[in-house]
Amino acid sequence: MKTLLKELDLPQHVTLESISWGRDSQVYKVKDGRNQFALRVLPSNRHDQFVKEEKTILYAKQHGIPVSNVHKVVKAEDYSAMLMEWADGKTLLHQLQETPEHAKLLGEEFGHMQAKINRVNYNQPSNLLLSNQKEKRMLDSIKLNNHFLIHLDFHPLNVLTDGLNITAVLDLVNAGAGDPRLDYARTQYLLKMVGDQYLEEQSLKQFLDGWRKGIGGQKINQALEEWAEIRTKRDLGLG
Ligand SMILES: Nc1ncnc2c1ncn2[C@@H]1O[C@H](COP(=O)(O)OP(=O)(O)OP(=O)(O)O)[C@@H](O)[C@H]1O
Ligand SMILES: [Mg+2]
C-alpha cells in the first residue's frame, strides 16, 4: 500500500477506511485532512480495465452524467489503482432500506438516470458481444443499435442518492457502446435475481414499477431476458 500511495502522490499518513470488497477488487475511502477520495484497487493484470473505464467516465461526464472525476490511474507492484473524487450520498440500496415508502419515486429517478445515460450517443466499436458467439446468437432475432452509452451494471449499489435524486453514477467498469435494451434487460435481471435478498417484496415491486416508468416503459422481450441471464452468470463466474 505504501508504494501505491506514493505513486498516487498521497502522503503516507492518510487514513484509509475499507468500504467494500468485490471478488478481487477493493474500495477505500481515503482522507487527507479536508480532502476525501475513493481509492479502487484491482490486481495489476486488470490495469487495462481502469484505463478504459477512465475514458468512459470522462465521456459520460462530458455528456452531463454525474460521475466522479478520476484523479489518477496507476500500476504499482501487483496492483492497479484508480483514485477518484469521493461522491457524497448514500447508495440507493441503503436509501431504499431506510425509506421503503419512497421506493416507487426512487425507482422512477433511477430509471430516469439510466435513460439519460442511454440517450448519450457513443460511436465506439461495441465489444459487448464480440467475445461470445453464444450470446450473440441469442440476440439474432433483434436488430441491435449499439450506438449508445450503456452502463451494464446499473443497480442500486452503483448509484448514490441524496434521498430524492440520483447524485452519482459509479462503477462504469462494464460500460461501453451498446443498445439501451441490453442495459435495461441486465438491470431487470439483477433486480429480479437478487432484489428480494435486500428488499421486502412490496418495496421491490414498487421500485420495479417506478423504474419501468422511469425508463419510459421499454419492453424487454424473452430473447433479451435470456441473454441477460447468460451474460450475468458469465460475469459472476457462474456460467
Ligand atoms: N467515487 C465514489 N464516491 C463515493 N463512494 C464510492 C465511490 N466509488 C465507490 N464507492 C463506494 O464503494 C462501493 C463499491 O464501489 P464500486 O461499485 O466501484 O466497486 P465494486 O462494486 O466493489 O467493484 P466491482 O463490481 O467492480 O468488483 C459503492 O457501492 C460505493 O458505496
Ligand atoms: Mg459496484
TrEMBL record:
Domain Protein kinase intervals: 13-239
Domain of life: Bacteria
SUPFAM superfamilies: Protein kinase-like (PK-like)
Residues forming coiled coils: none
Pfam families: APH (PF01636)
GO molecular function: ATP binding; protein kinase activity
Stored PROSITE patterns: PROTEIN_KINASE_DOM
InterPro entries for the chain: AGP_Transferase (IPR051678), Aminoglycoside_PTrfase (IPR002575), Kinase-like_dom_sf (IPR011009), Prot_kinase_dom (IPR000719)
PANTHER family: AMINOGLYCOSIDE PHOSPHOTRANSFERASE-RELATED-RELATED
Name of the protein in question: Protein kinase domain-containing protein
Organism per entry: Filobacillus milosensis
Lineage, top ranks: Bacteria, Bacillati, Bacillota, Bacilli, Bacillales
